[in-house]
Amino acid sequence: MNSIGEFEAVTPEDRRQMKAYIDANRTLTTPFDIVMEGKTDSLGHAQVRVKLQEWINAGATWWVEGLWEATEEQVAARLRQGPP
Q: From CA 49, how far away is CA 35, in angstroms rounded?
């Protein structure tokens, strides 16, 4: 949250720093996933690949496409686009 109590979007750099902290302080040796959620529905195929590659480079292992307010038709259209 920022100073006025509103949530701020996590950036790939934020995620990279969080992962570095976890790697430095975690005592377990078992693997773990880093799940990110966001939207790519307004981006072209190449732009989606670039955006997701930034998250992969920051340590993300899963992406959840945030279509929570989308209509059924919008979700179906995004699914037809397939993975990047």
A: 17
Cα–Cα distances (Å) from 45 to 27, 34, 55, 59, 84, in that order, read: 39, 23, 16, 21, 6
| One-character DSSP codes across 12-62 | HHHHHHHHHHHHHH----S----EEEE--TTS-HHHHHHHHHHHHHTT--E
pLDDT at 19 over 90: yes
The pLDDT value given to residue 2: 64
* 3-class secondary-structure state, position 78: helix
Q: Which helix (H) or strand (E) holds 73?
A: helix 72-81
Contact between 3 and 48 (Cβ < 8 Å) = no
pTM (predicted TM-score): 0.79
